[in-house]
Amino acid sequence: MNVVPLGPINPIFKEPIRIKLIVEGETVLGAEIEMGYVHRGIEKIMEGKHYLKGIYLAERVCGICSYIHTWTFAECIEHISNIEVPDKARYLRVLTTELERIHSHLIAISVYGLSIEHETFGIWCLNTREHVMDLLETITGNRINMGFNVVGGVRQDINKEMIDKIYKKLEELRNDMKNILEIYNTGPLINLRGRGVGVIGYKEIMKTRAVGPVARASALPESDWRLRHPTYKELKFKPVWAKEGDNSARTLVRIKEILASIDLIEKILELYQESTGAVRNRVNIKGGSGEWKNEAHRGEVTYKISLTDGGIIKRIIIRSPSVMNLEAYKYMLKTCPTVSDAVTTYISIDPCISCTERTIVLVDKKTGKTKPYSFK
Amino acid sequence: MIKEFFRKRSINVCIVNTGGCNGCDIELVSLLASRYDIEQYGIYVHNNPREADVLLVSGPVTLPWKNRLKELYEKTPEPKIVVAVGACALSCGIFKEGNVCGPVDKIIPVDATIPGCPPRPSEIIQAILKVAPIALSKREEHLKKIASEN
Ligand code: SF4
């Protein structure tokens, strides 16, 4: 048995992580994952800070899915202190989240394309993504880390010109995505490369609690938390799913989800145009603690916050989806014949290391005692 | 001769995320898209420190990275340039009170900085193009020195 170390700096990894693949010949037997390179202790920084500062820190948990973190943070506090959010703000939040989902999925597909050495496909997706970034910049004012959400609503309204621009760009995007889907389905070099590689079934999903596109590609559509969100219920949202559970199915689910997101955005724009009023409410923070879940681009994200009457954060626990998905990686390795397949499988679950490295245990430096990070 | 001529016109870049939020990394990756097309300037993103000329460091240096970053800097072959990307790499930014051991220039020498959270891709291209001539002239000097020694 030999060990092949990958990372922390690797041509194909976006983020620093160290994976030790245990191999015999070319066959991969198992993997050991070493993390901690991106742990900054955001929970600790947030403790004792005002929630207005906390929302910026929540945004910087992860740069790819920054918006969904602020949304969940804001909704958690709104849930604790019973704050009503205006209709317009609710729709704008969904609009921006879905745009961000498109950009995040496009990055995932593109990196997958690069990892199977199909550079044309990868760069094509990356180029399509730039149009989405343009839309995000028009709506919020920045490409990444937008600072658009506040507790009680959103920061700004959009106008008629922007709506026209969004409609126009969405139409172009839909055509592009249809082309990409066709190439993906018919191009044998892309699709066949992932068939039967990194398979994970229902049983293992239940064991590891994998979420997001990984679970949905293994015939678990009900794992989508958008089904339980009040605004998405209004839109009659239906999740996309596949049943093969391999690399190819996971990427296919992502491509189809982008098309579904485009439909959702068009629906939400109609609802938005019918609604009137302000985009932001005055807030009155009450103390207490509560929990809120949302569907991030990689699976469910949970925020658990306890705060005082003035709005000072006492304790915050963030759980992000990639933890469970990385656990599922162990089972996927059983159907990876070579080392390069193991790498593409790792890319196909689209792990986000900045999200994953959250506080789990606390160690007392003097006594060396450990205890789990909890509310008590 | 031929090798010298071509090596002058190709710059290899290595992206190192030392604990940032990913935002800066994503903007660096989007440089590959054909809208910005960084390769038309002869800049290649290889992510391999052993053949890099420019190290793009993003993020505050977290504790596990402290020694690794020094090692990485030593591994990079000689005429080398370090560019710190983003507010985090310049001053630790928003993570100042966290599990970090300081901005990048505390650990390794930094030649150029790009402020912003995150900086726009066009700004990053501009910065790389500004420091690239320095890297090239440094390399020429280095090659001359080697030639005179032999
Ligand atoms: S500068 Fe901003 S975008 Fe860049 S890593 Fe730091 S927090 Fe993220």
TrEMBL record, chain A:
Mg(2+) binds at E43, C62, I318. SUPFAM superfamilies: HydB/Nqo4-like. One of its GO terms (molecular function) is oxidoreductase activity, acting on NAD(P)H. Pfam families: Complex1_49kDa, NiFeSe_Hases. The keyword Transmembrane helix does not apply. Fe cation binds at C65, C355. Residues 120-275, 292-358 form the NADH-quinone oxidoreductase subunit D domain. PROSITE patterns: COMPLEX1_49K, NI_HGENASE_L_1. InterPro entries: ComplexI_49kDa-like, NADH_Q_OxRdtase_suD, NADH_UbQ_OxRdtase_49kDa_CS, Ni-dep_hyd_lsu, Ni-dep_hyd_lsu_Ni_BS, NiFe-Hase_large. Keywords: Iron, Magnesium, Metal-binding, NAD, Nickel, Oxidoreductase, Translocase, Transport. Its cofactor is Fe cation; Ni(2+). Gene3D superfamilies: Cytochrome-c3 Hydrogenase, chain B. Ni(2+) binds at C65, C352. Belongs to the complex I 49 kDa subunit family. This is NADH-quinone oxidoreductase subunit D domain-containing protein. The lineage of its organism: Archaea, Methanobacteriati, Methanobacteriota, Methanomada group, Methanococci.
Automatic annotation (TrEMBL), chain B:
It comes from the Archaea. InterPro entries: Complex_I_20kDa-like, NADH_UbQ_OxRdtase-like_20kDa. Pfam families: Oxidored_q6. Its EC number is 1.6.5.11. Its cofactor is [4Fe-4S] cluster. One of its GO terms (molecular function) is oxidoreductase activity. Residues 21-130 form the NADH:ubiquinone oxidoreductase-like 20kDa subunit domain. Keywords: 4Fe-4S, Iron, Iron-sulfur, Metal-binding, Oxidoreductase. Belongs to the complex I 20 kDa subunit family. PANTHER family: FORMATE HYDROGENLYASE SUBUNIT 7-RELATED, HYDROGENASE-4 COMPONENT I. This is NADH-quinone oxidoreductase subunit NuoB. It comes from Methanothermococcus okinawensis. The gene is nuoB.
